[in-house]
Design goal:
270 residues, Phosphatase 2c, domain 1, 5-stranded antiparallel beta sheet
Length: 270
């Protein structure tokens, strides 16, 4: 198992809230949710949360003690929550949280677990590319944002409705029928999207944070097979360079997407 990785902060002067790391046979990617005002509830910040949780996950995976991925994640969430419960209001909806993607080689299979919108790209032996993600947050965001349709951005009406949409989305977080993310409640781990694939069906895998997946959507610079080809030619750093070059070209466009932290890792399994 050979892993290559690259990560890039979205904006200068701000910490990178993504985390990526590997131990023999396993890979972890976290994408921190930087919610405005979170500093009022947690003195540590989102980057601290993702790095603390990510490091704890790698420690759990390295022990190879027979636990499933959800159990390892549940314990890591509980341990990280305990590390700042005494100093921070970790139950507030805006306190630090993160998406989670875990992949592990175990008993001839690649096991995977996802909470929220990171992306696992499976490079299949037959030549195909299969993308695995947890679509529940995207679906909830789309439903909660529906009232904004047809409203002019920048108007008081738009801002008022957008604030209501944000509250509606927050109410669905870590709730049945909504979406799940790593935060303060270990029970979220048992709601993760999980699966496995036989190793003999795969050449390798790649993982991308939400900011890196923009190379496909919404930027449309390539498709998922194209991501595989770009990784083969230029590695994870090549994917990120392509994203940043595009963002630099459109930076004067008022409708351009604000750059996000972007992280990519690729892993050969043969």
């Amino acid at each position: 198992m050979h892993v290559s990785l690259a990560t890039s902060a979205g904006r200068a002067g701000r910490p990178n809230e993504d985390f990526v790391g590997a131990v023999p046979g396993a890979l972890v990617l976290l994408d921190g949710a930087g919610i405005p005002g979170a500093e009022a509830f947690c003195a540590h910040g989102v980057a601290w949360y993702t790095h603390r949780l990510g490091g704890t996950l790698l420690g759990g995976l390295s022990r190879a003690d027979g636990r499933g991925l959800a159990a390892i994640l549940a314990d890591a969430i509980a341990e990280t929550a305990a590390a700042h419960r005494a100093t921070c209001d970790i139950t507030d909806p805006s306190s630090p949280q993160a998406t989670v993607l875990m992949a592990r080689v175990h008993r001839g299979r690649l096991e995977h677990l996802l909470l929220a919108d990171s992306y696992l790209v499976l490079d299949e032996v037959g030549g195909g590319v299969r993308v695995v993600t947890d679509e529940r947050e995207v679906a909830a965001r789309r439903e909660c944002s529906a009232p904004l349709a047809g409203i002019t951005p920048g108007t008081p009406e738009y801002d008022h409705i957008r604030a209501s949409c944000a509250l509606a989305l927050r109410a669905r977080r870590n709730r049945p029928g909504g979406y799940w993310i790593a935060k303060d409640d270990p029970r979220a781990a048992w709601e993760a999207a999980t699966g496995s694939v036989a190793l003999d069906e795969l050449h390798g895998i790649a993982v991308l944070s939400n900011g890196a997946s923009r190379i496909v959507t919404p930027y449309g610079l390539t498709d998922w097979p194209g991501v595989r080809e770009l990784l083969a030619a230029d590695g994870p750093s090549g994917v990120i360079r392509r994203i940043r070059a595009f963002e630099a070209r459109v930076s004067g466009d008022p409708d351009a997407v604000v750059p996000d932290d972007a992280t990519v890792a690729s892993c050969g399994l043969r």
